[in-house]
Amino acid sequence: MQPSLPSPHPTEHHRSQRSNWLRAAVLGVDDGLVSTSSLMIGVLAAHASYSTILTTGIAGLVAGALSMAAGEYVSVSSQRDAERTDIDIERRALQNNPKGELAELAAIYQQRGLSKDLSLEVARQLQARDAVGAHARDELGITVATHPNPLQAAIASAIAFAGGSFVPILATLLSKTGENAFVIVVATLIALAISGAIGASIGGGNRFVAGCRVLLGGGIAMAVTALIGHLIGTTL
After folding, report:
1. Per-residue model confidence (pLDDT) at position 163
2. 27-84, pLDDT tens digit by residue?
3. Best-predicted range by mean pLDDT (49-58, 80-89, 105-114, 133-142)
4. Over 60: is that where the pLDDT of 180 sits?
5. Does the pLDDT of residue 192 top 80, yes or no?
6. Is the dihedral of CA 6, 12, 16, 18 positive or negative?
């Protein structure tokens, strides 16, 4: 009797399958925080009224969320179409030249360290079971875990952007007047650091480094926008 293979380790929790929606969500939150707060601080530095500042923030939230959703959907759809095209090419190649594709697959396994005979046997068994899937995975690097979902990315981006944009808007509402730029800046920077740390935690990265990275980028963006708004406000 052959010994049974051990079951998959229960403590191994991989995160790469989260890459598509995680990237869209983290990008959406950071973009919502930085772009909306920068817009609001820019018009504030130009000495706009409280209602104008608040209207700018709300308009930025709506426009940005819709733009992010549309952009993500188009971008990820293009990626998915490209992957489907590559898979169709492999499917036709398997139909027209199965022996050549078998040799190609075996060569890939041999390059990874398997012996020539074992590589050929592995390729033969995998190609017999799911030829297109084997070639998509090992030749093209396309798997179910990394296959893009346009609708998922679009929804995640829109919700995340709206959530990020709501922070400076809420800070403005709580500050009662449009003159308190300090509240907007501090609330945005804190939210940026938290979002960066959460994104790194979900993805398995360094939370401190990720938090500092988005904190620095957001701070620079707000400072530049405030400077431009001040210059425009004093010249017009």
Report:
1. 93
2. 788 889 999 999 999 998 888 888 899 999 999 999 999 998 998 899 888 888 888 8
3. 49-58
4. yes
5. yes
6. positive
Residue 158 has pLDDT above 80, yes or no: yes
Instruction: Produce one character per residue of 34-72: b if its CB has 16 or more CB atoms within 10 Å, e if not.
Output: bbbbbbbbbbbbbebeeeebbebbeebbeebbeebbeeb
Distances (CA, A) of 175 to 32, 185, 194, 218: 20, 12, 21, 21
Compute, in degrees rounded to 10, the torsion defined by CA atoms 203, 209, 211, 213. -110
CA 110, CA 114: separation in Å to the nearest integer? 5
Are the C-beta atoms of 142 and 87 separated by less than 8 Å? yes
